[in-house]
Amino acid sequence: MTRLSVNVNKIATLRNTRQLEVPNLVKLAGCAIEAGAEGITVHPRPDQRHIRPHDLDDLAALIAGYPSVEYGIEGNPFQGLVEHCARVRPHQATLVPDAREAFTSDHGWNLTALDPSSRRALAAAIASLKDLGARVSLFVDPVPEMMAVAKQLGADRVELYTEPYAAKAAAGDSLAAAAVYARAAEAAHAAGLGVNAGHDLSLENLGTFLRAVPGVAEVSIGHALIADALELGMAEAVRRYVALCHVA
Q: What pLDDT does 106 receive?
């Protein structure tokens, strides 16, 4: 079954608007785990707009009490990700090619266009993270030709960037959009990679995506799930996402 990892960045974004620990990031992450989430994901950024260094340690302490739950950290490997992982030792590190000023993640690595120097640097970051004991995933667009390159660089998985799928699904074209991702997933599996997915997945589009795309090991969902939690409560929102993962 596909595992659900809850991205808690948006909880931290709300908290950071005041000088209080409200809402409490660790408490709500624990609520998500108790409701069935099989992972917690964070994406710290250099400007600390949401996740702050102490959050990484606090969440690591929480997740240590749940042996079956995975801790995932996302970020640019050249903007502090490796150093964060060296300190808190997540189960999974997802490498994202974000610019420092990026509003949110808006594209994956263009692995086939890397120059030799960039390729060596990315491979070295992957090796460093694997030496720390982390499974390494590369955030990529659904381009089948890139999957063999990801494997050559040393990645264990790819995370398919799903915002384009979500946009087309909202326009009523979810099946055709998902077919693109199915081809990418098949190429990833053929290259010996696991497949994750994330970005703008929601209660409305997740089920169709998982039924159409084979062998998705994990989805990382934050924005839509936290928005749903405002209406449904964290526990009920998580239960609904978990149910879609398990049914698919």
A: 57
Q: Which residues are catalytic?
A: 43, 74, 199
Which pLDDT band, with edges at 50, 70 and 90, does 102 fall under?
low
Q: What is the pLDDT of residue 108?
A: 86
For 97, 151, 229, the CA distances from 105, given in Å and listed in that order, are: 8, 22, 22
Mean residue pLDDT of the chain comes to 95
Whole-Å CA distances, 25 to 12, 40, 41, 45, 174:
6, 11, 12, 16, 33
Report d(CA 248, CA 140) in Å as an integer. 23
Report the DSSP pairing between strands 39-42 and 70-75. parallel
Domain 3-247's class? alpha beta
Q: Are 57 and 87 in contact (CB under 8 A)?
A: yes
Q: Where are the domains of the chain?
A: 3-247
Tell me, rounded to whole angstroms, the distance of Cα 129 from its chain centroid. 16
Question: Is the Cβ–Cβ distance between 139 and 105 less than 8 Å?
Answer: yes
